[in-house]
Automatic annotation (TrEMBL):
CDD domains: PseudoU_synth_EcTruA. The lineage of its organism: Bacteria, Pseudomonadati, Bacteroidota, Bacteroidia, Bacteroidales. Belongs to the tRNA pseudouridine synthase TruA family. Homodimer. HAMAP family: TruA. The gene is truA. This is tRNA pseudouridine synthase A.
Length: 255
């Protein structure tokens, strides 16, 4: 039987989602915990990679098991997991369902703030400049009109294509001086969101015009874009799947 596991985690203590030879990853911790419950080796396949320090309020991973789910599976699994990783639900899916390749879209949020606040520093990036969010949103509209994001991709990756289709990209004023960048696409390249945010901030500071932002995309050159912003303020918040992958109607709690 194949299952989808819905997970949230604070990425501060991990070198990203994916297994690393010499560093701790979220995937490694989950593999060990799930394997312990089944008393056999279980390997999870994630919906994507999150970089070092990046968080997730909703990550999805699939795994195969020859035996039925142990009783009180999610409760017992959460007992085994550290405080910074939580399992929200587990759902049976079709045998060929794939957490990564069947995903229709993924949504990320990035948070920035200005006024010094000790309670925001671990999950948002402080920017001291007065930013023009109207100009940043106008620049973000360009992201919906293109499909090659080479300029915002980490160099020397094993990705076969840098084509992505962005369906939403905008800055939202959340409260006080806290702003949230929302972006949804069918897929993301490594470091893509952080590079986009870093470049949009240059627009907000007045250091880059809307035309220059458009030219950055057209150049298809990572060196043309700005530096990436830190990872701790980035959250994977949602992943959408077609109904056909599920054996039963979805009952996953929105969180």
């Amino acid at each position: 039987m194949r299952y989808f596991l819905y997970i949230s985690y604070d990425g501060g203590n991990y070198h990203g989602w994916q297994l690393q030879p010499n560093a701790l990853s979220v995937q490694e911790v989950l593999n060990k915990a799930v394997s312990t419950l089944f008393q056999s080796t279980i390997s999870l396949v994630g919906a994507g990679r999150t970089d070092t320090g990046v968080n997730a309020t909703r990550m999805v991973a699939h795994f195969d098991a020859n035996n039925p789910l142990p009783d009180k599976f999610t409760f017992r699994l959460n007992r085994l997991l550290p405080p910074d990783i939580a399992v929200q639900d587990v759902m049976p899916v079709n045998p060929n369902a794939h957490a990564r390749f069947d995903a229709l879209s993924r949504t990320y949020h990035y948070y920035i703030y200005k006024i010094k606040d000790p309670f925001k520093r671990h999950y948002a990036t402080r920017c001291l400049a007065d930013l023009d969010f109207s100009a940043m949103n106008k620049a973000a509209e360009h992201l919906l009109q293109v499909d090659d994001f080479t300029s915002f991709s980490k160099l020397h990756t094993d990705t076969r294509t840098n084509i992505c289709h962005v369906t939403n990209a905008k800055w939202v004023h959340e409260k006080e001086d806290l702003w949230r960048f929302e972006i949804t696409a069918d897929r993301f390249l490594r470091n893509m969101v952080r590079a986009i945010v870093g470049t949009l901030i240059e627009v907000g500071k007045g250091r880059m015009s809307l035309e220059e932002f458009s030219q950055v995309i057209q150049q298809k050159d990572r060196c043309a874009a700005a530096e990436s912003v830190p990872g701790e303020a980035l959250f994977l918040v949602d992943i959408k799947y077609p109904d056909r992958v599920f054996l039963h109607p979805k009952t996953i709690t929105e969180f």
